[in-house]
Amino acid sequence: MPPAGTSFYPAETNLKIHPTAIVGSSVRLGENVEIGPYAIVEDGVTLGSDCVVQAHAVLTSNVTIGDRNLIGYGAVIGSAPQDLAHNASISSEVVIGNDNVFREYVTIHRGSKQGTKTKVGNGNLLMAGVHLGHNVSVGDRNIFANNCLLAGYVNAADDIVLGGASVFHQFLRIGSMCMIRGGTAWSKDIPPFTVGVILNTVCGINAIGMKRKGITTQNRADVKRAYKLLYRSGLNVTQAIAAGQTEEWSREGRMFMDFVGHRTKRGLCAAESGEAVDTL
Question: How far apart are CA 101 and CA 117, in angstroms?
Fold first, then answer.
């Protein structure tokens, strides 16, 4: 590995690379990057400015990381997906935005199919032991507590809080501003602004989280109205969607109804009182 000040790493970039780190000759590094002891950054990685890669972390080829990210001790980003259909000839990526924190032993797998990506947005906190499977898409400002596990193709929107050791089936969607209890398991889509409490079950809206985000009382009430239409009106999903199309909604209410209206094979979570919610 060439030291700072060579043709590979000009002195003005102010790099701090530990002598035991292994950094590929074709790695692209921004300014003020720190790479800790025994870290491995393979050829093909792009690492933005003001990033810190802590000891024993591994960044594999075809990983692109933006600015001001922390890669914690022992984290592994960009390794091959745990998919039996994947083989070494397939080229895929991990693409990460800015201002994220990936704590100890986070693992993020690259896409499973040719040309596909696993994506993480901006301002996320992934605590120790979090796993993102292949082709997962994570938005902005999310907090995933220790040992959350997201299987392949999970789509997590923005401003979500996932409790520790919660697990999520492949292909499901987690709507914006959901709050999910730790130690729970999910195989159905979770509508935005809801609170998840037990297996595939929500118990109401995340009113406190919405208030903290500056969503007005009127708009919070509109989400509650949409929630009641889906879960408390006695209508099934198809009927609730049809009824909602005739009503006026705030931005947040429309987000809820649009999410519900986008039907997937996973179906939707039930409400705590036990009403049946139909699936495809």
Answer: 19
